[in-house]
Amino acid sequence: MSQHTFTVNGKQVTVDTDDKVRLLWVLRDLLGITGPKYGCGINVCKACTSHINGKAFNPCSVPVSAIGPDDEITTIEGIADPATGALHPMQEAWLEQDVAQCGYCQPGQIMAAIAKVKQARSEGREISDADFDEIRNICRCGTYSRIRDAVRSAAAKM
Amino acid sequence: MAHQRRSRRPGEQSPALERRRFLGYLLAAPTLAVAARLGGDLAAPAPASAAIPSIPGPADILDLGDALTLAAAPTSGLIAIQLNRDDSVSFAVPRAEVGQGITTTIAMLIAEELDLPLSKVGVNLADARPELVFNQLTGGSNSVRSLFHPVRTAAAVARARLLVTAAEQWKVDPATLTMSQGVIRSSSGHTASYGSLAEAAASPRTEEVSATLKDPSEFTLIGKPTTRLDALDAVTGRKQFTMDLQVPDALPTMICRPPTINGTVRSVANLAEVTAMPGVTDVVTVSSGVAVRAATFGQCIDAVRALSVDWGPGTVDGETDASVEQKLRAATLPLALPPVLTQSIDAEFVFAFASNSALETNCAIADVRPDGAEIWSGLKSPIVAQEQIAAMLGLPIPSVKVHVVTGGGSFGRKLFSDAALEAAEISKKIGKPVKLMWHRADDSRHGRTHPMSISRIRANYALGNVVSYEQRHTSVTTDFGHGLGEILTAVAAKLPVGDVGFSQTVFLLSQSMPYNFGATTQLLNEVPLKFHTSSMRNVYSPNVVCARELVIDQLAAKLGQDPLTFRRNFLKNDRFRAVLDKAAEVGEWGRELPDGMAQGIAFHWEYKSASAVLMEIDCRPETVNRKIRDAVAGPRVTRAVAVVDAGLPINPRGLEAQTIGCVNDGIALALTSSLHIDNGLPLEASWDNYFYTRQWNTPPELEVVVMPATTGEPGGAGELAVASSFAAAACAYGRAVGQMPTRFPINHGTLSFEPKPKVPPVPESPVDGLAYTF
């Protein structure tokens, strides 16, 4: 057991657990942050997708010891505007398109989509079919076409 | 299934049903509470007398002469709507919400009948209610069909009672009052919100009353595309699933499972050692393996991997794909009609095992104590769960409280309560609450599957007509042990004869023939192998219909007709043809495509609903050979048009969503998703092994057309288009490559992944996640 301090959704937290416990379980089981979902535990399904320092990652495959005190973790719970509480444009687009069915994978889908749009933007281009080929988040309800519509719509507003 | 309403022939128009009166109940309660009975006694004995579309007088809507006393009224099986003082309405729906949108649909029905803003209707999921007997099963695309009249009836009783209450208070004729957006107004200027009347309208005793439902011409919400009521919770992470619930002391728990299905624990070599691992609180042998409870699921995974277990044999240890296929072929029923003076097409199709694993793995929370138990899980047959758990724990049924939690997908999986039963067993054994979750590898390998099947078809044709059509469908036994949601039928379904009867019933009730093909027989035979099976979305239809539609393309070719024209000519009625024609029109049937691409079209009729799907597939190397890590990139369906006629579409937006899901399911079944059985266990243990449709497979162009209302009653919608989508993808593929595919999914013969070890049963979580950030 050892202490681990980092920032989640703008708040500094300290947890006392084994070094190798993956961050997903620190978030879910120890901190009660349940937006990131378990779907495989091996970085395949991407249901736990969250952000570390603004980039998408999968906490199921990162030991808590790899997270430092300067690291900022953002989960779906922290993606709305912290000052106003306004939803992120990607969340708004999700509502406009009524994307979610069961909703289980959707926090991860939204977090991945935000990062994908930012990535394309930083490379000076708009999101394309090739980018969608790189989104690995699985949705067993098969909401993919509405995800594509929502991502394109949000990208125009981000 | 036994409780579907009387059926009309396909295409027959609905009778003028809506003005009929229905029986409902006023319930004794502090604020207005109303109810209706689920099931058979809804229809009031008297037919509607008034055809005048105006607000009826009090005697019409509240015939007190019909009312029965509480003592006589059997009220236990009622579903109740409660009006609250804050103007809101509460209803606990006796169904599971697993993404299909039932809570939104039911809220729409209540809001419509009560003229209440949708935001004022709160629908949650009812706990297990054994008194509902058959009426708490979620399946067969039957939820809306079975709840449409009861929910509206209860709301209509409330509506009538509110009108009478306001009229009494204002001493006016109820006929002069109007209701809108949760407010009653009189022509003389009085207004009252529903909530302000909730107490005055309450009934001192329970009475049976009759109610008249709104005429469809008055609908303002039914038929209007409506966003899901839980959409905001879903996109903010607030939507709670079973594993998100905080039940005191219910610590993470997992099970170390055997290397073959139903393998048993002989002994554990290192129990004490594993119990001493970091975070671990308990390690105990249970009927399905060795359970571990720990502070985090991560520590459970480590403990499961560390366990050294001597495993006894399971129930299908020697079975592989080839051995199962051989048993099925041997059991196929003979085709009866030889081609005499006719020409004939004989075809045989093989469908691999498929997984109904949802994204949320099997999971449940259980808190078992000496005098009672409390269970939380996503359950589509909660009464069976409650009764089985009570029997297992040796507790009276009322001492087992079973909460139905919103599920993260089902696809048939949640008809069974495997995790709830295991959680109860573990909690009892260790004497502590547990939060049990299956690992993805367990869910894929030990979870229930849609079993392998073979479909053999012979169609005889002569003089431009199909004179006979025979289909012999042979499947590994599908477990219908959930019965109709109640323990008695669940037990009956487990009897050797009973289960065959049940399967046959399901098969016969679901398999219709929408084409005029002369003498038609479709028969099922099942081979009882001890795999974990269950229904999967659309049950038998995807395989049966895929086989049929492929043969139809062959028949069309033999008779020199275009596949669309052939289907138009042989479909039984104009309602079917309208759906097919719409798909052809929107999908531009027959348009020019490059070599290696083709269109396919298919039709399906079930649940009193029709669907037609047109797909275009791209089998060209530049598409198929796209480099995507750990993926099957092609062939790819590039365009899909799905047209659905669900009788009366209540929420077209939700129906469209369900259809989008069906399209992606059908594509997966046709092209990529299957389980490979290897010595008693599926090889697939990950979403990168079991190739359900991913972004790189989904059609870049997808359009759903919801046909306007064709009948007055909703048909089933949630699984309707799986069969037609599967068939359309298969037909398109056959036309693109110039050869009818006969084994599904088409890539099953190629193992496109490196199988994970069977021991330990779950893979280690990687530690290199930060190498993949973007």
Automatic annotation (TrEMBL), chain A:
PANTHER family associated with the record: OXIDOREDUCTASE WITH IRON-SULFUR SUBUNIT, OXIDOREDUCTASE, IRON-SULPHUR BINDING SUBUNIT-RELATED-RELATED
GO molecular function, one term: 2 iron, 2 sulfur cluster binding
Protein name, UniProt field: (2Fe-2S)-binding protein
Phylogenetic classification of the source organism: Bacteria, Bacillati, Actinomycetota, Actinomycetes, Pseudonocardiales
Domain 2Fe-2S ferredoxin-type span(s) in chain numbering: 6-54
Start and end residues of each [2Fe-2S]-binding domain: 75-152
InterPro entries, alphabetized: 2Fe-2S-bd, 2Fe-2S-bd_dom_sf, 2Fe-2S_ferredoxin-like_sf, 2Fe-2S_ferredoxin-type, Aldehyde_Oxdr_Iron-Sulfur, Beta-grasp_dom_sf
From TrEMBL, chain B:
PROSITE patterns: TAT
Signal peptide: none
GO molecular function: oxidoreductase activity
SMART domains in the cross-refs: Ald_Xan_dh_C
Coiled coil region boundaries: none
Domain Aldehyde oxidase/xanthine dehydrogenase a/b hammerhead: 236-315
Protein name: Isoquinoline 1-oxidoreductase
Cited SUPFAM superfamilies: Molybdenum cofactor-binding domain
Organism (species): Prauserella flavalba
